[in-house]
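Support reply, case 0932

Customer input (verbatim):
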Amino acid sequence: MDLKFTFGGASPDHHDHGDAPSGIPLPFSTTPAISTSSVLELRVRRSAETPGALLGEVVTGDGVVYASAEVTARGADPADLAAAARSAMSRAIAGLEGPLAESVESVALDLGGGEVEALAALGIVAPVSDLFMVDAALQRRVGVSEGTPIRIGA
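Our regenerated output:
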């Protein structure tokens, strides 16, 4: 059997295919973004597209989004925001392949206010002013290593 492949119509074949072109250009202009950074951060922020929703994203140091998930908060009180933030985190981490969850170096929480209260609702309090870290309970629910720093704001 003789198989011939053509790319972009570069060399027409010698067989009759009716009106079909001999080659179809490949979409090289739609190549996916590739990261050169080994830094991964889990970010949770309010969604710009959906009111009342939180967006969890795993982002590299150079801005490439590896995984994301959007979760609607049931309400605006700290407990509701905490539950939605935890859900957005765990869903974004679940979207990663293999052991990448263990490679997350930091968590950024930007809820437009109320971050400290939401963390307190999750049982995370800062032993030192503004020094929050993933605890064992959050590690079990989300998959990010215990002791990973949590940064407040963008």
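We compared this against your earlier run and they match. Two observations from our side: The chain has one domain: 40-152. The longest strand covers residues 53-60. Please reopen the case if you see a mismatch on your end.
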